[in-house]
Amino acid sequence: MNIEEIKIGDYIKVKKGIVAPDFEYQLMDNWQGKVVDIQKDEKLIEIEWDYETLLNTPNKYLKDLIREGYDYQIMTLGISELERANRRDISNQIKDVKLKLDSKLYWIELYEEEDKIIQYGKLFQGIKIDNYNKLHNKWKEYLSENLEFPIETKVIESERGRIRIGDKMKLLDIEDYDDIYGIFGIGKCEWEAVTFPICNLEAINNKSQNYRLLRDYSIWFDNI
User: What pTM was estimated for this model as a whole?
Assistant: First the structure.
């Protein structure tokens, strides 16, 4: 492919066997995008990846890019690493693809563990990441089904009444939520019946599923 024949807006793809700059573990066979800049003297092409390429990019690689401050949508490659491609037509599913990509990137930025990125991506599939009402309803449903009550917890943050950080609380169930405190739990603190935001609780048994689920919810809630 001759760089003199390439124009802004052309579609190209990466040849087989080419690895990502600075991340040699990642092959980029047939990744595709649009030419957005050409550096003829250096024989370099700047590519904006299409939605399908981004949607199928491995989570680990995307996470490494984000962590290191790289732009995951744009890449510059040598002309010798590229070949021409036909533009993929996804006009009839563009909204669905955008929603899936937004969700994928959202969970990648939120959690470190690959299994959680996949798990929560599937669990909240189809829900817009800024639709906090639907997301909270899904969290409430999921936690109700998977937490094992009663749960011995401790308070890790408190702005409410007599309850202080470090207090022990037996969590008996969860109930509704509000926009400020999130999902509330019903429980006992000493001999007093209380309702308390579960984002401020941590299961004492840090090897349990309860610990993991409460922590995962707290991470999500703290970042909305």
Answer: 0.81
